[in-house]
Amino acid sequence: MFPSRNFASVARTAFALNATRANLSNIGDRWRNPDAVRFFSNLRAGGYDPDAHIDVLPDHRVIYVCVPKAASTTIKAALAQLMGRTVPPLRLHARRHSGLLSPRHVGMSTFHRLATCPATLRFSFVRNPYARLVSAWADKFQDKPLSAGDGFAEQYLTYRRQTGSASPEPDDTVSFPEFVEFACATAETRLNAHWALQDDMLRMPGIALDLIGRVETFGRDFVRVLEHVGLRGMITAALTAHHNVSQHSAWQRYFDGPLAAQVYRAYERDFDRFGYARATD
Question: Rounded to two decimals, what is the model's pTM?
Fold first, then answer.
């Protein structure tokens, strides 16, 4: 059951108050804890946005580095439950609803302590690059007209203009091969985390991950997260829940040889680091 309106209102108010306290603490940290400030600044200087892609659960000693299109909604749902919240899937990526805190929300000193503490579980999940691209396309582009105001469409249209391609009509959609060309060309630019290199996202300076799970073995790998927080009772529910499932056929059906080769060249670091096979059969 989703939380009542009154509960949701109280939760949002509490989140706002916590954010205000954290902002005040962060101001003080600039004088009291320069190491923590430098740690946080190094993340941002490297082109990363820790507040967008890191969830921190201080009471559970957990840091989650989110890779979009790698079971991130399912993971956020489980983490929100750890904080006593049951949130509709469409609201899970809004912190005021999920209650999940960013590094800045918990305060730079607390984040620095957790990020470097041996007792903290720092984890993420990755996905087969072929399957991840199919999921990203199906979720963000499939059957959607390239209308102004849609952030994903705007990024694609900007790419088309920059490459000198003919401007599509407003009612045009992006085919999967067209999306692959776009994604491969921008994978290393950090244009959009939904198709950015996973290897790149998980090389944040100072964040030594203890667990990099795989979507393909989610049931086995996520158990370690739940065991870390001592909530075995949540295991069955967390492992059987599926959120934000993109509507598409088996990912293998979308690739011919040349298209797969194009993806492999662009995402070779993901294939190599995370042990995914180049073959699509």
Answer: 0.85
